[in-house]
Amino acid sequence: MSGPTHREIQTNGIRMHVAEQGAGPLVVLCHGFPESWYSWRHQLSALAAAGYHAVAPDMRGYGLTDRPEEIDRYTLLHHVGDMVGLLDALGEETAVIAGHDWGAPVAWHAVLLRPDRFRAAMVLSVPYSPRGTVSPTKLLQKAAGDGFMYMLYFQTPGVAEAELERDVRATLRRVLFSGSGEAPRGEGWRPFAPKRSTFLEGLIDPPALPPWLTEADLDFYVAEFERTGFRGGLNWYRNLDRTWELMAPWQHAKITQPALFIAGDRDLVLEMRRAPLEQMREILPGLRKLVLLPGCGHWTQQERPAEVNAEMLAFLRTLD
User: Fold this and answer.
1) Which CATH architecture has domain 5-319?
2) 58, 66, 101, 267: which one is catalytic?
């Protein structure tokens, strides 16, 4: 089977690049930070071979998709709007939506806000959290205390960009390894850390890449971020409170669409999201299956493509 094809579409006022493969029912794949459509490379071919039309966009702010300058154009409502516009551009009424990392809340909110367009969600790494009564940055500040919290560090425009763009290859090598299941326990990336001044300071620069990441894979990511910089992706973090304000009408909302959740048991995002993970069956009446992959870190679909593909295809078959 040949690889994915690429094209640009117009959606929600921006130009969006998508990689797509196969024909059949539509499955949309939303990536996270700092990634691109390429993080779904193993799923595109598997879904296509199973009779699905798999579409992985470069999300707003990434890759060959437009990167609006205004920070306030990166709320979750913008990202869900982008996905609705993607379906319109493809001439599809409905789709199953998948998301990893920042793509996870996009997927959760897509089925929450537009259940008429998104018939189910397959979500990796980040559990669903209903809107709380306190703004996200206040919660993070309370949890971090005097320590370091990367999401708070990312809030000031220009600061994280300068650090991450100083040596893009070193940045990506550290981030991808330190968040993976190969990072030594107790080392590498952690959501909360002792007080320090930078993000990369606590990350490991590995002597060799982990087995799931080839030099060619790293080359692709490096070329993308050397061209675009990291500002687009960082702007997602800068809208935590703005999205929270806009989501007030959905306070305590539950998601009723069918859902699959997959995460690595060494994914440190779960350290931040332990309560939502334990409450998922209560707040997600449609949750069909919750899968924790032993020894897997944060980059779920890249670290364990065979297991993720098998779970996704089994879930999709229950819908069909």
Assistant:
1) 3-Layer(aba) Sandwich (3.40)
2) 101
